[in-house]
Amino acid sequence: MERLKVILVVGALGLVIWLLYPPRQLQPLTEPNVVEITFMGPMGPIRDSLDDAVQEFERRSLEAHRLDPSRPVYRVISSQTAARDQVADPTRFLISVAGGMPPDVIYFDRYAIAEWAARGAFEPLDPYMEADRRAGLTDTVRPEAFFPAVWEESVYQGRPYGIPVSVDNRALLYNADLLIRAGYVDADGRARPPRTWEELLEYCARLCEFDSAGRMTRAAFVPDFAQSWLYQYGWANGGEFISPDGRQILLNSPEVVEALQFMVKLAEAQGGYQRLAAFKASFQGDSQDPFFTGKLVMKLDGVWSLANVSLYARNLNFAAAPFPRPARFVNAGAPPLSFCGGWAYAIPSSARNKQAAWEFIRFMTSEQAFRIQIESDRARYEAEGRPFLPHQQPLRQLNEEVFQRYVAGNPSLPPRFAQAMKVYNDLLPVSRFRPVTPVGQLLWNEQVSAMQAALYGALTPKQALDRGTANCQRALDRFLAPPQGVPITSWGWFFLLYGVLLAVGATCAVAFHLRRHPRGALTRRQWPGGVLAALPWLAGFVVFGGGPMLFSFVMSFCDYDVLNPPRFVGLKNFRLMATDDPLMPRALWNTVYMLVAVPLTMAVSLAIALLLNRAMRLMALWRTLFYLPAIVPMVAAAVLWVWVLNPQGGLINLALAAVGIEGPQWLQSPLWSKPALILMKLWAAGGGMIIWLAGLKSIPTSLYEAAEVDGASPWQQFWSITIPQLTPYIFFNLIMGLIGTFQIFTEAFVMTGGGPVNSTLFYVYHLFNHAFRYGNMGYASAMAWVLFAIVLALTIVQLRASRKWVHYESD
Questions:
Q1: Collapsing DSSP states into helix, strand and coil, what is residue 37?
Q2: pTM of the model
């Protein structure tokens, strides 16, 4: 009877799991000739003006179906991404591809399309364009209708992989009143922006202001604020970032080195980058934008900033100008340059409805679709009482039409908005775009890292760029000449091996139990009940834990990017980790440094527990207050502490200033960034307080009474009674603290992005970058197993050492 109950319960659980398991393919629609197009956008569900254009696409497909019943009716479905940036963090996209449920259309940053197209993630679109031309379609996509930089950014090895849907470039915005006040005017008394690097350097030296305490109150121009990237400076100086054949990284070319040196000079002219970084940390958005409030005289920013000006600072006397270039280029008559970016629609190579996806893209990048979205935005803005300033359009003719109708021809907009928008539009034909390369994301990250290293003075500009070039070139060479290995195309052996390992594990567990309890017949009769109680965990481990662990172990010996079959390369990933990853020592050191937080957090939480172990009024309230920080979600806590650690307006530095102490730069300083995170951990020390309280309650009061009779002081009682009795709890907290520290990730991901100057690039953050940002899943798996080995070794050492200092009641 007992066995029958167990069998019935197990069968019921199996049935529930089978019913809840999601189907691999979408359920077929009940309506005939209806094709669903799954769309993965950047901001969640389809809404607002995009929804209006999508509805028009669906309506047209329905009309076409009525005229010709053989034509399908299209229905567009949102596929939401949970990432903050699905380009820098394409986790959701990769998981959908690996899981066999990719979107049919994805909205992707153009510069990143080439990187994933090179790995086979996206479908080349020229066959669809050619088929449209052969069919005589007049509304097909025409490359010549787009701005050259817009179209070419998503072209890889001569083939388009994305169709542009947006465009935005950069210009220098300046506060005209502040320039006039400083005497920078032309012959007509109007504000004169800097035209050359030399003039910009002079403006920076004269226009910044400080208070009596030496804190910056106004910056002239922050060299890395808003959309001010090394790319813009390098292009302005005649530099390139990759060779024409795409095989050599030129990040450390003389022109780019000189550009980074100029960025350093801009910071030094305003008191040094440390001071600028602290001031920048106080910047806010929307109505408190530093450019709107007069805290920033000039900034290099995107065209979307004009819409923010019209909404939050309509009366601001501002203007736009091309970003300055070195005087030798200006004197030679060289044209200005601009940084151009934007997004495109692409079709994943594993999409199910590729032809339907192409028809969707063809309509959504047509003039009709763009006009629908523009009119929808205009109507919504006017209904909300907000001024309407349209985005730039990727189609040349449409962009000029939109400018004339909605900006130049809009009497409600002051003329300065039309002047600024015209500057942006005039720069579109001469705009540059980020290099089209399979290592585009790494190249972007390295130029940011080099900027930080040089601006903070950690490395010279040449050293920083040499390091970044070496990292990118190494990755590019590895991509162009991938490691040779045996491709793994069949996985039957994997499931067989997994089954064997599970069987061996179960056999070993039974054998171990029988050896320990050779005559335990009673215990054996209790096995069914014990197995049943442990079944949820066992099922979860077998389905969701053990299999992925074994797969990760296999992948650690493979070259694998999720999108293509893995290739077995042996120990190559481990050799790369030991000899050819320059950031690995830094990531390890940063993580080991954070181990300082373990004893500190233990000491603070024990101190809180000792205080709350005394009899006092409102004890439950105090315990709740101290425990609350431990249950605050990590992301929410991180956002809170970004404000608390603000160098100029943060709570901590304001408190220090009140007693005459100048606070550090915290998250903006390579020296203080890790201590800042440790301080944040101490704030949540109340989580460990619960464990310590349990330990303190378990200590017999008779021990303290006997010690008092013998004349022991409170301090002697603490060291001779409390600490020895708490050694099991000390051991537990120490082990869990070590494991948790080696897994630190969220704080750096949210608060610092691994910076400044890689000072918070922890081991797991480095692993995350390789796995999901650079597509090196095999290498990331090897890193994960090395981390497992490190944690296991430390745990074993602690277990062996605990025999000498951990005391239990049974001892």
A1: strand
A2: 0.84
